[in-house]
Design a protein that fits this description.
Elements: H1 3-15, H2 28-57, E1 64-65, E2 68-70, E3 75-77, E4 107-113, E5 119-126, E6 129-133, E7 137-140, E8 146-150, E9 155-157, E10 263-267, E11 273-277
Antiparallel strand pairs: 1-2, 2-3, 4-5, 5-6, 7-8, 8-9, 10-11
Transmembrane segments: 32-55
Subcellular location: Cell membrane, Sarcolemma; Cytoplasm, Cytoskeleton
Family: Belongs to the sarcoglycan beta/delta/gamma/zeta family.
């Protein structure tokens, strides 16, 4: 190629317009992009406004949410709270100097479960009453003294005095073992078995004492005082034997004088007592028709 041909080719190329290639989004694509960006900004503002509103309504703070505060010892809840599901906690206590209320429309149950999900102790308070289930139940005073204890073997009352305020008293279907039975001052003490017998036993003796009143023993059939190895002593200034039968003397041995008002107490061989009019001598043999 000669020099003139090269020069002519360069002149032809320089005389043509350069081609421009556009880079970017134009037209309806650009308008859609702006619309989606604007919509996204509106959603972000709405979301931010809702988040601020929720934080304000729920009272979210650095320490917790509303009446619920997060402390070093756990969660601190102020005011009334309602739990719709079971609550699991290691310890529940009220604010110092404030009472703790547990309220339910049906019942409040406290269950102690074992390692194999077995019920060990249960405490239920409901409309029907108060129920407790466990191996042992104890009530102690503030000083640690045992006041009441119950298990499968026995029931222990550790108080100094057990008082029964019911009008019918206390009813025991089995035996009762106690070192002392006493009524309140100026009150009567009654031991009664309406349909069966009443038995009192003590290896070293039984003492019945009424310091300011009377002692009455009333029965329908027989009242028996028996001492196997000892004696029965009646120690009083006056001893009255009421409604003892009076022996009748035979006609031949009866005196024709006035009727005597002095009697002597006689004993039959079977132990029965009767009265006989006193005379110059003993009249028991004469009036022993009661022993027949």
């Amino acid at each position: 190629m000669t020099q003139e041909q090269c020069t002519h080719r360069n002149n032809v190329q320089s005389s043509e317009k350069p081609q421009v290639y556009k880079v970017g989004i134009y037209g309806w694509r650009k308008r859609c992009l702006y619309f989606f960006v604007l919509l996204l900004m509106i959603l972000i503002l709405i979301n931010l406004a809702l988040t601020i509103w929720i934080l304000k309504v729920m009272n979210f703070t650095i320490d917790g949410m509303g009446n619920l505060r997060i402390t070093e010892k756990g969660l601190k809840l102020e005011g009334d709270s309602e739990f719709l599901q079971p609550l699991y906690a290691k310890e529940i206590q009220s604010k110092p100097g404030r009472p703790l209320f547990l309220q339910s429309s049906r019942n409040v149950s406290v269950n102690i479960m074992g390692s194999n999900n077995q019920l060990l102790t249960q405490l239920v308070t409901g409309s029907s009453g108060f129920k407790a289930r466990g191996k042992m139940f104890e009530v102690k005073s503030t000083s640690g003294k045992l006041l009441f204890s119950a298990d499968e073997q026995e029931v222990v009352v550790g108080a100094e005095r057990l008082r029964v305020m019911g009008a019918e008293g206390a009813v025991f279907s089995k035996s009762v073992e106690t070192p002392h039975v006493r009524a309140e001052p100026f009150k009567e003490l009654r031991l009664e078995s309406p349909t069966r017998s009443l038995l009192m036993e003590a290896p070293k003796g039984i003492q019945i004492l009424a310091e300011a009143g009377d002692i009455q023993a009333i029965c329908r059939n027989e009242l028996r005082l028996e001492s196997k190895d000892g004696e029965i002593s009646l120690d009083a200034r006056r001893i009255r034997l009421m409604r003892l039968p009076e022996g009748k003397a035979s006609t031949s041995s009866s005196s024709s004088g006035t009727r005597q008002t002095v009697y002597e107490v006689c004993v039959c061989p079977n132990g029965r007592l009767f009265l006989s009019q006193a005379g110059t001598g003993s009249t028991c043999q004469i009036s022993n028709n009661v022993c027949l």
